[in-house]
Amino acid sequence: MIVDKKPDTSDPPPYTSESGGAGPSMSTSPPDIARCNLLCVERSNEKINGSYVVDPSITIPEQFLQPLREDEVADDGRRANLRLVTTHSRIDADVWVLDKTDAKVLTPNRLVFQSTHGAVDIRLHDLGRKAPCNITVRNTHGSTTVQLPRDYVGKVTIHYKHGSVSALSPRMAMLSDVNGER
User: Taking every annotated instance into account, which residue ranges of this chain make up the domain DUF7330 (predicted)?
Assistant: First the structure.
């Protein structure tokens, strides 16, 4: 038997991850898709499934927007930067929120997700910036899962009636849990 005593100087084979991974991406750049602002998607009997990059610096003339809804009138007439609403189906969305670069005072971005008879699964991805958000999730008959980046800044309000809400992270401060609203 001959033993080669020379050290092996060849590089190891390249490593390729095959796992898709769960939870929000740690990427600092959003996907290369069209930016949106003040977007309202409403569907009946059809799921909403997609990726959205919210850019609050995009201005849209009033005549192209949907009429204000009750909750928007109650919120000083501010529209949601992204509103996804479905009845009799589910919402499954990946969301990135860009900073409004020219703003001297950062007004929180509003994200609204609502389903009457289906699950709501939302993943807010980290861009390494601090665009403040207020997230509202309403779900009547279905489970609710909201995944947030570790450094998320903002309020999360979850309204649920006949469904479930995944456990809240110990890093979140719960301000209330009253009659199906957290």
Answer: 37-182
Instruction: Read off the amino acid at residue 104.
Output: K
Residue with tokens 């928007």: 72
Neighbours of 148 (CB within 10 A): 21
Mean pLDDT computed over every residue of the chain? 79
Structural tokens at position 74: 């109650």
Residue given tokens 């990946």 in the structure block: 94
* Long-range CB contacts for residues 11-17, cutoff 8 Å, separation at least 24: none
Distance of CA 123 to the CA centre of its chain: 4
Counts of helices then strands in the chain (DSSP H, E): 1, 11
The confidence score (pLDDT) of residue 16 equals 45
Residue boundaries of the structural domains of the chain: 38-57+69-165
Q: Indicate the pTM of the whole model.
A: 0.77
CA distances from 29 to 25, 127, 130 (A): 10, 6, 14
Residue with tokens 């009033």: 62
- Residue 22's pLDDT is 46
Run of H or E residues at 70 = helix 70-74
Handedness of CA 138, 125, 56, 129 (dihedral sign): positive
The CA-based angle 166-167-172, given to 5 degrees, is: 120
